[in-house]
Amino acid sequence: MTDPIRTVLVDDHPLFREGVAATLSADPHFEVVGEGATADEALRLCAGLLPDVLLLDLNLPGGGLNGARAVAAACPVTRIVMLTVSEDEADVLGALKAGARGFVLKGVSGRELRGIIASVAAGDVYVTPGLAASMLRDMSSPRPSARPLDDLTPRERQILEGVASGQSNKEIARGLELTEKTVKHYMTNILQKLQVRNRVEAALLAQREQARE
Prior knowledge:
By secondary structure, the protein is of the alpha/beta class. The protein folds into 2 domains: 5-140, Response regulator (Rossmann fold, 3-Layer(aba) Sandwich); 148-212, Winged helix-like DNA-binding domain superfamily/Winged helix DNA-binding domain (Arc Repressor Mutant, subunit A). The chain is 53% helix and 13% strand. It contains 10 helices and 5 strands, in the order βαβαβαβαβαααααα. A 5-stranded parallel sheet has the order 2-1-3-4-5, sandwiched between helices. β4, α4 (89-98) and β5 form a beta-alpha-beta unit.
């Protein structure tokens, strides 16, 4: 059996959130690793847990779009699915521009929601009917930073320094008192932020940037 899809739920309506959590937890293919009610909590949970998918309410304290933008910038490995009652095209476009990979109406069934999450986690996109999925991919493509290392968190920089010095994931994990699995999650995040294909390219980029400083 493959690893369950690690999911964070952020919605300011506890009853709805608990219902979604129960629906996902009933299926062994999903694991709810965190819950929150605000945009700030969405960022904190995703930065700390690096989930596969974030289910984020569009209308919550701090703003769902603000939360999506912050998570997309800090945790590109996490795929964002917006939950909403709105079918307004402006809301859909706003969510896509903010970095969401899915836009789901709250009226979907539990089975449909699980299917959508699994699809988005696998790299696909889902959006309210009528809007082309290709538009979603175009709008959510990240723009490269002039100084890519500036986009990394302090922890990601520590891990990249270990990679640049030739350490394995196991050695980095031991030095930072993390699990090897956590280091692998961070490495996935680092590769996506730096837009490189593997740890060798990441190490070369880090060395080049350090030489420029």
